[in-house]
Specification:
mainly alpha
Amino acid sequence: MTVPTGRRERKKAATRQKIADTALRLFLERGYDAVGIRDVAAEADVAVTTLFSHFASKEALVFEQDEDFEQRLAQAVTGRAPHEPLIPALRREIQALVRHCTADSAAPIWRMIDASPALREYEESMRLRHAESLATAIAADRDLSQTTTACRTIARFVIDAYSLAREAADPDTAVDEIFRMIEAAWEVAHPSGSSVGTAGP
């Protein structure tokens, strides 16, 4: 997560994290459906309005790193070194995200998400938003010279790679396998003669 610089920003970030940590603890202890927004606010010792100033919905409390993940994916495109191929840069970021989300500590959270239709629906909408954000970042890179359709397609593939690998028995191997296919799709879409690099480990 990006570290805020000013005192006010640090205090705001600390409050947000306290709310998210409190919500997750309550959800895991009592069950997601059994805990209300007012329960979380009371336990975190904040007003309900304060909670909503940080999180737009109850579902968002579970995915508190949503914006950070979205920014990281865009940064994998915009922050890569000059002439660095796109697909390996995206592969590294997805690998890091998958490892974060498949750590032993994350298992109870994903069980909770899988058991809740509301959370599954929220995750799906979040993934679509991440894909659109990633597609926009790819399209804005003049060196890549891609059609809107190609950018959106590759972005969807990359976001789906995260979901598929997270659910696989061997996530690292799954990332390698999926990104070989993404690399092949990118080579088909990319203008002839341009260097795209490889997505191997």
